[in-house]
Write the structure tokens for this entry.
Amino acid sequence: MQFFFLFFPKHSWRVIHEINSHTKFVPTFFHLPEGNLTLSGSFQSWKYFQHIQAEIRREFTFSVPLQEKVQTILAAHRKKFTNHAVVGIHTRRGDFLEPKNIKLGFGVPNGTYFEKAMSTMKTLLGKKNVTFLVASDDLTWCQENLNDSSVSILPQGEPSFHLALLASCDHMIISGGTFGWWAAWLANGITIYFKNYILPNTQLDRGFDKDDYYLPGWIGLDN
């Protein structure tokens, strides 16, 4: 088993911690002891909730004002073309570029990855006219490296707005991080991800299993 217990007799609660498995699926969590339990960990695997994904999608909805704002923006892009697809791009850089996080094992894609991902997406979508909407914590880098005519870079905004917009796109291209992962999962279209998000032979790599983290059918590309 890959978890351990902490006991709090006064309140009759037991705390169960996930150990060294930030993205690994641990089946034993489906066979927990009875009683009051607190689960502590990331549990960032689609396998934990695949059997109730319809329920999660119903629960994970955005406020009406936020949805209206998002749909107004998407409609403005869609009306430019017929047979149109909107693809969200999320690139997280910021803290991932800090030396301590690189040492920990986070990988950050360069512009070549996004060029390949956009080209692959256009090929997969065939004759559709494609617009790419980019959300990022590094707008300057995006402006310098994602300058395709089909790219529209979103201004800085509330994370909730960016998540709602990306989740409402037809398809997704992501770099790394749970923000982009959840946007792609909620969008529920074609997803292209950066294969080297977790660098090999690092601390994070020891608790990482790509088959538990990325859904079947998601497409991995490198730089």
Observations:
- Residues 95 and 101 are 7 Å apart (CA to CA).
